[in-house]
Amino acid sequence: MNYYRDTWVEINLDNIAYNVKETVKLLPSKEKLFAVVKANAYGHGACAVAEAALGAGAHGLAVAFIDEALSLRKSAIAAPVLVLGASRPSDAGVAAEHHISLTVYQLEWLKQAQAYLSPEQTVKVHVKCDTGMGRLGVKTQEELKELVAFIDQSPQFIFEGLFTHFATADELDTAYFEDQLFKFTAMVESLEERPPYVHCANSAVSLRFKKAHFNAVRLGIAMYGLSPSDEIKPLLPFPLKPAFSLHTKIVHVKRMNKGEKVSYGATYEAQGDEWVATLPIGYADGWIRKLQGQEVLAAGCRVPIIGRICMDQCMIRLPYELPAGTTVTLIGRQCNEEITMDDIADRLATINYEVPCLITSRVPRVYKSKGEVLHIDNPLVR
After folding, report:
1. Which of 18, 115, 200, 344 is the residue whose CA sits 20 to 30 A from 108?
2. What percent of the chain has pLDDT over 90?
3. From CA 76, how far away is CA 57, in angstroms rounded?
4. φ and ψ at residue 330, rounded to 5 degrees
């Protein structure tokens, strides 16, 4: 045990592996899967998830920034790593040194980056096409050909990939998706020679549209057992298995009398004699104040959070007295009840992607496989 507060996240690595394996089964034999582990693997823990995904058949990894890629390299992960976001031209040498592939989308970036590379250094690059997302990327075939021509004539760059990203692939209306796919296909076909990786399929496309796979896919939210949207959940080819659950333990139980109030602002008033328990989790852990009133699970029963959530603690109303040390599940299953990531997302009026990312690093991640704890990540006491 290397954490000293009874609040923790459990990550089921077997479920990560299952979601990857089931996706790989859908792909042709030569098609590669890149596991997206940016944002600390959507709050799950990048290195542990990366290892589980690679062990389950992922070919490579994708992150948002060079810093995230370096974290994987420091953990001795040697698989291909692609940085999906923008990098500084001055950091091209760092990418070359650590065999990290970068995204490019401007000719000027290539010219600037070249000045920071020694004659012996080479950087693998993936050209990003903006087909309708409006973020990074070249918008025309002319821009694309100009970038590729510069890359081809430079010994310091290797044209490794071409890709785009879809804005509406998780919606039932596919018109905008089809338009983006048409534009990207035209860009691919405009090249005299394709790079080793051509990819545009995120989780929604990987699981729904084989025609958009090309020769690589990027598996993000589905790898964590979460549907890209409620709309397409019934259309998924296999049931996803969530990997993330959040737990804490009761640290104090007290009897409240009618009329007594709870927490800041005294917004909650006991309507009768009530049992109230204190939990050691609060908004500094990512369990934000807007979750006041959200149900959690204690002794297999749904019980509400009462009063305002504090920085490090919150309170729940119990159906009857429970002892200190009782496990309370905030996300996950207990007995026959379950609170899903989507339940929390609905309460917060957001998407399931955001919820695990909210849970801060001061909440330890406990990694399990076959019911056994493999290791615990707690940055506070490393």
Report:
1. 200
2. 98
3. 18
4. -95, -35
Short-list 52, 31, 356, 350, CA closest to 206: 31
192 CB-contact burial (10 Å; exposed 0-12 / middle 13-18 / buried 19+): exposed
Pair 263, 282: CB distance under 8 Å? no
For 198, the enclosing helix (H) or strand (E) is strand 197-201
**Do 170 and 91 sit in the same domain of this protein?**
yes
pLDDT digits (tens, 9 = 90+) for 184-197: 999 999 999 999 99
Handedness of CA 119, 120, 121, 127 (dihedral sign): positive
Q: Under 8 Å CB-to-CB from 215, ≥6 apart: which residues? A: 30, 31, 32, 197, 198, 199
The count of other CB atoms within 10 Å of the CB of residue 196 is 15
Domain range for residue 85?
13-224
Q: Based on the fold, state whether residues 194 and 286 are members of the same structural domain.
A: no
- Considering just the CA atoms, what is the radius of gyration of the chain in Å? 24
Give residue 117's identity as a one-letter amino acid code. L
Say if residue 161 is in the same domain as residue 258: no
* Assigned token pair, 219: 């598996």
pTM confidence score = 0.96
Q: Which of 25, 211, 264, 290 is labelled catalytic?
A: 264
Q: Do 279 and 196 lie in a common domain?
A: no
Residue 2: band (very low, low, confident or very high) from pLDDT cuts 50, 70, 90:
confident
Cα-Cα-Cα-Cα torsion 183, 189, 195, 198, nearest 10 degrees, comes to 40
Task: State both tokens at 374.
Answer: 């493999």
3 is catalytic: no
Give CA–CA dist 234/229, Å, rounded.
10
- Please give the Cα distance from 324 to 306 (Å, whole number): 18
**Residue 349, C-beta contacts closer than 8 angstroms, at least 6 positions apart:** none
Instruction: Specify whether 38 is catalytic.
Output: yes
Residue in 32, 38, 183, 249 annotated catalytic: 38
Q: Which residues pair with 123 in a beta bridge?
A: 157
For CA atoms 44, 47, 53, 59, give the dihedral sign. Answer: positive
For the segment 205-215, what is each residue's pLDDT rounded down to a tens digit? Answer: 999 999 999 99
Same domain, 51 and 191: yes
